[in-house]
């Protein structure tokens, strides 16, 4: 294929109505490339290494005589960084129990991340995983501890409750966008607040109150409503894999996914081709909410976490990072979810074994976010040849 | 200023986009660069403007070798560029846009707007570029915005002006005005590099014509070379510039618009009580200057906008309330005016775009799943049949040249049985070779008994294809005529000057 008319374009595209086509695909241009994602992780680990060095007393002391005996500084730094990161690895994948911890933390991130990914592919920025998870938790928890039902059926009902209520909560944002044009970033953020007050409202009710406790805390779900466990690992995590495969199939192989991707990339062309853009918005947000509901069921029905207003932790927000780091693809989301699960599990060991502040794992996550969000910086540092598109689109996200 | 290019080569990986190009732009000449989309014109100009680094070769200004690392270097050397898509800030005034990047201030950082406006006035007077410096750019018509771009370049003391496909966005009147401006600039000593693929324009203003094909200069010609010869140089084979067609065998009325009125979101009536009939086996051309309601009219035919009043009948059924999906399923084929906006999804592969409105049919899906084999087979046959130049069926459509992108849209719309084909600007931004092909397919579709509606602002196209011509002005059809009407008469109708003098009313 040496025909110039075909091969020239990718490298030197003629300016074919740039303003409009860029607006149409603005969401996609947010996505980092694989290189960007890997570079962001590497860079975060490098900055993390510096932080480990300077949070180690021995290294700081060695600085006071740096000019007479610099070797100490480098030696102690090396040891500190090695100890810290080896503890991180040990704590995340070094033993059976640490693997279990990593996977247990990764599974909800993956599910909620898939919800963000799916919405993203439909051209929407779903900030509402948090609220959708909270609503799912209310349903799963209530069904789980309030009723006495046969093993199996109880679990299924509680799980269905979480998925349905999460889906409804996501669907509200989709409906508002489709019918009124309300921007999903605003509505999902607001629904997160509403969700938090919904769970506080319920926690104030007698039914949701754990006996003999003064805190706003529910009882854990009954054993009949929990996921079975093998080697200490609850089998709900398998659902994360199923969900990832399912979303991959939906996006890449189904007619509905074809519509989602078309609407996400160019809603005008999708409409002209006879697709219903509003139906795609609504259904995509419903499924995204269902995935958040599934995510929180891993916590409520898997780890038997009691309901509090902090039930979702920061999973709903980390899910956004996971989806972006994973380039809004199902496989990428799974990998990014595992990484974040590992960071969070290993962070504890890092503190216990190497004396590194526990916040460092969170700082690493935050740094990854920062570097993923600043592809121009990362590309400059690594001299990666980007396609130049992701540069200068910082303000375009609103155009979706 | 004399600009010389010697052996300029640009390679992208193993691909050579520009191969040892030699060009000399003499002071005060209009040098036309003629070539199909994707021939390498833009690559060459991007090197001249400091946007791309040449792999080999050199650029000389007044016999002095120069290197352009950024556009600022080229501007400093006296090169100005007017891009096909304007680089203006819509909410700024003309004067503010012109001063952008070289803002003059009066103490304390206060912008000296008065001086900028005076500069614009001076330039516009000297070169006959009529522009009001205090108007907001967003309120100006496209042709005037282009003048602002030219003034911007001149304000930087450009002595060589590169105009990249400047006529693609203009109406026939605006094109005439632009050519007048180009002659004026030339008379004042500015050289112009005029990039285009329209032969008529090259012959009208060019002093010298360099033809580029597949990254090489294949020849230089003078403006008295015939259009057919130029086209042959450009495409590399002989090309038909007229449309071959037999007289139409007109059948039943297929599409019947009755008193269609469309109101835009701002509440203005943009289509006013339009009625027409499209018959099987004929091409109805809708002529008119851009922005006289054609866009909204055909959108209402497909159901993309709902008419505020009036009815649309297809084969004796009222389809006024149908959305695009039903209309497509009823057998309306639609080639939208702005293909990048409405016609394809740029990030989708050629294969996917070829089924963008067919994926849900039984041919390409099995229940909820896409039938990937059928979609791939469809892509293979369409790419072959329509000679779509793409590396693979998996390449994103945005990586194709404009002509090939349009072929993807056309191929898709022709891949199902049609009752009505609505094609808006079917050959805008498309090279000569592809225009010939697309026109041929449209006439074939007509001869198959489809009612064809062509909307175009290019009179050549309207005359070449149509069996009847309806002229739109200010949201109304001001007359329906046959193509034997004189060009001037139809031009007057397009300008709303007079009612048709029964020049063969249909």
Automatic annotation (TrEMBL), chain B:
Family matches, as Pfam families: ABC_tran
Domain (ABC transporter): residue spans on this chain: 3-239, 255-499
GO CC field: plasma membrane
Family matches, as Gene3D superfamilies: P-loop containing nucleotide triphosphate hydrolases
InterPro entries listed in its UniProt record: AAA+_ATPase, ABC_carbohydrate_import_ATPase, ABC_transporter-like_ATP-bd, ABC_transporter-like_CS, P-loop_NTPase
Major localization listed first in the record, in broad terms: membrane
Localization (cell): Cell membrane
Keywords: ATP-binding, Cell membrane, Membrane, Nucleotide-binding, Repeat, Translocase, Transport
Superkingdom classification of source: Bacteria
Keyword RNA-binding: no
UniProt membrane topology term: Peripheral membrane protein
A GO term for molecular function: ATP hydrolysis activity
PANTHER family: CARBOHYDRATE TRANSPORT ATP-BINDING PROTEIN MG119-RELATED, GUANOSINE IMPORT ATP-BINDING PROTEIN NUPO
Protein name from the UniProt record: ABC transporter ATP-binding protein
Organism in which the protein naturally occurs: Nocardioides donggukensis
Lineage of origin: Bacteria, Bacillati, Actinomycetota, Actinomycetes, Propionibacteriales
């Amino acid at each position: 294929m040496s025909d110039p008319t075909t091969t020239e374009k990718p490298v030197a595209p003629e300016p074919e109505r740039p303003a409009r086509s860029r607006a149409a695909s603005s969401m996609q241009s947010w996505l980092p490339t694989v290189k960007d994602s890997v570079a962001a992780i590497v860079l975060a680990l490098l900055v993390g290494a510096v932080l480990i060095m300077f949070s180690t007393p021995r290294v700081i002391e060695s600085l006071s005589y740096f000019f007479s005996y610099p070797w100490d500084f480098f030696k102690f730094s090396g040891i500190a960084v090695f100890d810290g990161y080896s503890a991180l690895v040990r704590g995340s994948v070094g033993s059976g129990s640490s693997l279990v911890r990593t996977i247990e933390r990764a599974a909800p991130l993956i599910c909620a991340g898939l919800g963000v990914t799916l919405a993203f592919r439909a051209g929407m920025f779903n900030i509402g995983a948090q609220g959708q998870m909270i609503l799912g938790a209310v349903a799963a928890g209530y069904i789980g501890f309030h009723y006495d039902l046969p093993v199996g059926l109880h679990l299924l009902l509680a799980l269905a409750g979480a998925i349905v209520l999460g889906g409804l909560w996501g669907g509200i944002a989709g409906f508002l966008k489709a019918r009124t044009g309300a921007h999903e970033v605003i509505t999902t953020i607001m629904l997160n607040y509403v969700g938090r007050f919904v769970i506080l409202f319920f926690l104030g009710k007698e039914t949701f109150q754990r006996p003999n406790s003064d805190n706003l805390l529910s009882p854990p779900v009954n054993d009949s409503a929990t996921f079975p466990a093998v080697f200490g690992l609850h089998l709900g995590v398998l659902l994360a894999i199923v969900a990832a495969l399912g979303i991959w199939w939906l996006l890449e192989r189904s007619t509905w996914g074809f519509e989602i991707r078309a609407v996400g990339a160019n809603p005008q062309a999708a409409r002209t081709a006879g697709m219903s853009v509003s139906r795609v918005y609504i259904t995509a947000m419903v499924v995204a909410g269902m995935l958040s509901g599934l995510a929180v069921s891993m916590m409520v029905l898997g780890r038997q976490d009691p309901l509090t207003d902090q039930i979702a932790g920061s999973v709903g927000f980390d899910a956004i990072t996971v989806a972006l780091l994973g380039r809004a693809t199902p496989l990428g989301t799974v990998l990014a979810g595992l990484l974040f699960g590992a960071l969070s599990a290993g962070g504890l060991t890092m503190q216990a074994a190497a004396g590194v502040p526990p916040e460092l794992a969170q700082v690493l996550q935050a740094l990854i976010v920062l570097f993923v969000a600043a592809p121009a910086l990362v590309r400059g540092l690594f001299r990666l040849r980007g396609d130049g598109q992701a540069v200068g689109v910082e303000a375009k996200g609103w155009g979706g | 200023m004399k600009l010389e290019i010697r052996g300029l080569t640009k390679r992208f990986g193993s691909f050579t986009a520009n191969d040892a190009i030699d060009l000399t732009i003499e002071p005060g000449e209009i040098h036309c660069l003629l070539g199909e989309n994707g021939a390498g014109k833009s690559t060459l100009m991007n090197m001249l403007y400091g946007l791309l680094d040449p792999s080999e070769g050199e650029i000389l200004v007044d016999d002095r070798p120069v290197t352009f690392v950024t556009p600022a270097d080229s501007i400093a050397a006296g090169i100005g560029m007017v891009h096909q898509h304007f680089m203006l800030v819509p909410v700024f005034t003309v004067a503010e846009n012109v001063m952008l990047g070289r803002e003059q201030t009066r103490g304390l950082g206060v912008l000296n707007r008065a001086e900028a406006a005076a500069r614009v006035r001076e330039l516009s007077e000297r070169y006959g570029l009529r522009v009001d410096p205090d108007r907001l750019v967003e309120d100006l018509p496209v042709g005037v915005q282009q003048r602002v771009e030219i003034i911007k370049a001149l304000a930087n003391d450009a002595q060589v002006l590169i105009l990249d496909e400047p006529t693609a966005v203009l109406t026939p009147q605006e094109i005439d005005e632009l050519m007048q401006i180009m002659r004026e600039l030339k008379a004042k000593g500015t050289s112009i590099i005029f990039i285009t693929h329209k032969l008529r324009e090259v012959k009208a203003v060019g002093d010298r014509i360099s033809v580029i094909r597949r990254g090489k200069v294949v020849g230089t010609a003078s403006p008295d070379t015939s259009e057919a010869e130029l086209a042959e140089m450009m495409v590399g084979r002989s090309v038909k510039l007229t449309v071959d067609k037999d007289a139409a065998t007109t059948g039943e009325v297929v599409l019947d618009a009755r008193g269609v009125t469309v109101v835009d979101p701002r509440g203005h009536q943009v289509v006013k009580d339009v009625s027409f009939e499209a018959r099987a086996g004929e091409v109805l051309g809708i002529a008119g200057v851009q922005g006289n309601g054609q866009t909204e009219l055909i959108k209402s035919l497909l159901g993309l906008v709902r008419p505020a009043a009036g009815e649309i009948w297809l084969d004796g059924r009222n389809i006024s309330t149908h959305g695009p999906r039903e209309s497509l399923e009823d057998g309306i084929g639609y080639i939208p005016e702005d293909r990048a906006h409405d016609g394809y999804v740029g990030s989708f592969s050629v294969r996917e775009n070829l089924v963008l409105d067919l994926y849900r049919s039984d041919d390409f899906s099995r229940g909820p799943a896409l039938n990937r084999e059928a979609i791939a087979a469809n892509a293979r046959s369409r790419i072959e049949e329509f000679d779509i130049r793409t590396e693979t069926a998996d390449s994103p459509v945005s990586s194709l040249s404009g002509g090939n992108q349009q072929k993807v849209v056309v191929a898709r719309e022709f891949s199902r049985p049609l009752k009505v084909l609505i094609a808006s600007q079917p050959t805008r931004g498309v090279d000569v070779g592809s225009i010939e092909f697309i026109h041929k397919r449209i006439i074939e579709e007509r001869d198959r008994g489809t009612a064809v509606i062509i909307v175009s602002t290019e009179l050549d196209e309207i005359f070449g294809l149509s069996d009847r011509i309806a002229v739109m002005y200010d949201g109304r059809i001001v007359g329906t005529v046959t193509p034997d009407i004189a060009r001037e008469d139809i031009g007057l109708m397009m300008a709303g000057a007079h009612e048709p003098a029964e020049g063969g009313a249909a």
